[in-house]
Structure formats: structure tokens, C-alpha cells
Amino acid sequence: MSTTPVSIVAIAGITGKLGTLTAEGLLKASSQVQIRGFRRDKRDTDPRVSIVEGQSGDFDAACRAVKGTDVVICCHLGDDNLLIEGEKLLIDAAVAEKVPRYFASDYSLDYRKLELGDLPSKDPMIHIKDYLEEKPIEGIHMIIGGFIDSFFTYLGVFDAQKYRLSYWGTGDEKYDRPPLQTERETY
Description:
By secondary structure, this protein is an alpha/beta fold. It has six helices and eight strands; from the N terminus they run βαββαβαβαβαββα. The protein is globular, with a radius of gyration of 18 Å.
């Protein structure tokens, strides 16, 4: 029998691409991890993942989802209300349940020197960073620049159907952006 303690990880937004890859990566990396997902419904899920059903605005459900966990990972993607109010509620639930660490849903470029309004798409991250700094929980921010697979597809740089990559330069330029598949292994 292993003496390694089991880590319990809550993942909000577990049904999205990043949430799913994060759960898969954690389960692959260790048999000593338990995943508790927080999502809108309990339909089909991996049997190694327990699900707490609830909405992003339901404080009691969020508390049930994070109670007894070692870390909360937020993988929300949505409108500003979800990214600000939904995440604040999740942080408050983590604080109420005395969870020691919280990964904010800000997997992006380094926005920490921006002021509100400089880049409106990053305003929710600025709000959450400031909010976490006021709370008695270790806030962790994944400042990664962007996911290469999403970034290139969005800009039309990579065409997966044609296996074609369009670029400018000689081809020797260094471009450091992790794919989602790699990001899941950083926790």
C-alpha cells in the first residue's frame, strides 16, 4: 500500500477542452489524485471523476464542489459575467472551505501591467487577479502567452485538414507557445 497522500483537485469548467485535458493529465500523471468536477449536469463522465452539479452562481454547490480539496483549478470560458462574478463566487467558496490554492482562469498573455480598458478581453483577468490578492488563499496565475493550437487555428495560420502551416520569416525563428496538451501537465 502506498503512503503517498491522495490529492483532491476540484476543476470548475471540467466539460470544456482545457478542463477535460487538465483532468486527463492529472489522472495520467498520478494514481494518487482524485478529481472532483463542478459542472451544470451529471451526464456521462469518466468514472474516476466525481461530479458536483451546480451553476456558476450557486454558492452552496460551489462549496460542495471544493470542500476538502487541496486545490481548485478554474477552467471557465465564457462571457464577462462568468469570468468575473462566477469566478469570484468560486474563489469565495474556496476561501470558505479553506482550500489552500486556487488556479485562476487566466491562461493567457501577461496582462499584469495592463490597466482596465487597455485590452478589454483581459479585463476579467485583471479583476480576478486583484480580487485574489485580497483573499487568504494562494492565487496562481498561468501566464503562458496563449495556446499554440487555438492561437494558430484562430488566426488561420494552421490548417489541420490540409496539414499546412503558414508563417512569415525564415522558419528559424523561435516561437514559444505551449499546446493545450502540454499545459495540462503543468499542474
